[in-house]
Amino acid sequence: MPAKRGLDRRNFLRSAGATALLGALGAKDAAALGSAALDFTQERQAFDFDRHFDRIGTDCTKWDGAIADFGSGIEVGMGVADMDFSVVPAVTRALAERCQHENWGYTRTPQSYYDAIVEWNQRRYGLEIDPDTIELTTGVHPGLIAALQAFAPPGSRVLMTTPIYSGFYSDLRFTRTVTEDSPMHLVDGRYQIDFDDFEQRARRANVMILCNPQNPTGNVWTPEELTRIGEICLRHRVVILSDEIHCDFVRSGMRYTPFASLPNRDIVDNSLTFKAATKTFSISAMKTAWYFSTNPDLLERARDFTRSDLTTLGIVATEAALREGDGWLDQLNPYLDRNQQFAERYIRDEIPLVDYRAAQGTYLAWLDVSRFADRIGAERLAAEEQRASGDEVTPEQMMQRWFAEHAGVYLSPGSSYGTGGAGRMRMNVATTRTMLERGLANIAEALASA
Ligand SMILES: Cc1ncc(COP(=O)(O)O)c(C=O)c1O
């Protein structure tokens, strides 16, 4: 596929401030922004999420990983789920203070760390967690893997409503368990669980992984949906692992329901919840997370497979974020709301080959690119590539390459997200508005001549 981009926009981005970049948008770009462009000045509050924060050259997965995969033509990294903003100042301050003490021997996790987790969940969601039921992990993945090892022997089935977070499939590979995908249906722009199908599949599964809110669709599950899931899983003795790592990002007007807050104690006692502050505060490489359960038996069984050795800096950063991050997050969420709305409007007005309805939660955008796939013959391209390489290649991977080469934008291929990912790409909008506009404008320009 020939790359068409002549302009080295990445260098341009690196040397341009946000204002200069906005001024440099073409007349068509500026017109396309419409009323959304006017929002810029209103968003300047105490934390400046409009400030471009260059991550290139720090070995970050989102940008440097994309460039490693597709070359220096990548101008906008919109893949892996972390954010481009500088972190809460309290985190940097706490880390800097700790770095003054130049010894990094083994560390213990202080009680104040557990208390910070308890208080965060109480303060933000009214969720009461007994600190003795919290198990620390070096990420949600290690926690899920421990629980899978405890409840799902190799060869057993793990139920998931799909499309769903690609990383769960690697957890299944790691534990030699087998996926039981229950495909969701799009109804009026929102994914709905097919509960008949779900129940059929629950009969043969040991464990369900729930994603609340759901990556990549952005669904924020209602108490009724969660209860129905819980009832079916209880009926068929399927242990629920509720991954709620994205819970701090829901769009205004939406409400996150912790699975553990459901009124039916039997349903809650059939679950473990997995959470972290890392996604919320963009400290993912600090490798901290936790899980908890109201059921001592489930908890003990998962603990048998858990080894949690947190790092000093991970503890310091996470506790600072949980204790002092409320204000930052409360300002960030409306910014992300507007990014989601902006993406929806821009795509509707300027990118006719793509469909998108703003997500209810997360900072992810699950794009329908099926008409574009037809336009470039993605299926045929994938078949040709597969024949040439001998590797399995999906049409979505071909589209990923197309977007990288023609638009300079890195998107995640829908085929990684299980059944229902065909004809889809996932776009991360947790970046400055300017960068989001640049990504969308690049895509619009590239698709216009596709
Ligand atoms: C739903 C979900 N769970 C888990 C993870 C990874 O969690 P961790 O980095 O804590 O292992 C991600 C990262 O994108 C995610 O989206």
Give a structural overview.
- There is one protein chain.
- The chain has 19 helices and 14 strands.
- By secondary structure, the protein is α/β, with parallel strands linked by helices.
- The strands form 4 sheets. It has a 7-stranded mixed β-sheet, with helices on both faces. A 3-stranded antiparallel β-sheet has the order 11-14-13.
- Mean pLDDT is 91; it is low at 1-45.
- Helix 7 (140-151) packs across helix 8 (167-174), helix 15 packs parallel to helix 19 and helix 17 packs across helix 18.
- The chain has 2 domains: 9-87 and 327-448, Alpha-Beta Complex (Aspartate Aminotransferase, domain 1); 93-324, Aspartate Aminotransferase, domain 2, CATH 3.40.640.
- A hairpin with a 2-residue loop joins strand 5 (185-187) and strand 6.
- Bound molecules: pyridoxal-5'-phosphate.
Ligand identities: pyridoxal-5'-phosphate
Helix percentage: 40-55%
* The CATH architecture of the largest domain: 3-Layer(aba) Sandwich
CATH superfamily of the largest domain: Type I PLP-dependent aspartate aminotransferase-like (Major domain)
Low-pLDDT windows of residues = 1-45
**What is the SS-derived class?**
alpha/beta
Overall average residue pLDDT = 91
Strand adjacency order, main sheet:
2-10-9-8-7-3-4
Number of domains: 2
Oligomer state equals single chain
Counted by DSSP, the helix tally is 19
Report how far the terminal alpha carbons are from each other: 12 Å
Q: What is the 3D form?
A: globular
CATH topology of the largest domain: Aspartate Aminotransferase, domain 2
Instruction: Please tell me how large the radius of gyration is.
Output: 22 Å
Largest sheet: 7 strands, mixed
CATH class of the largest domain: Alpha Beta
Q: In what range is the share of β-strand residues?
A: 5-15%
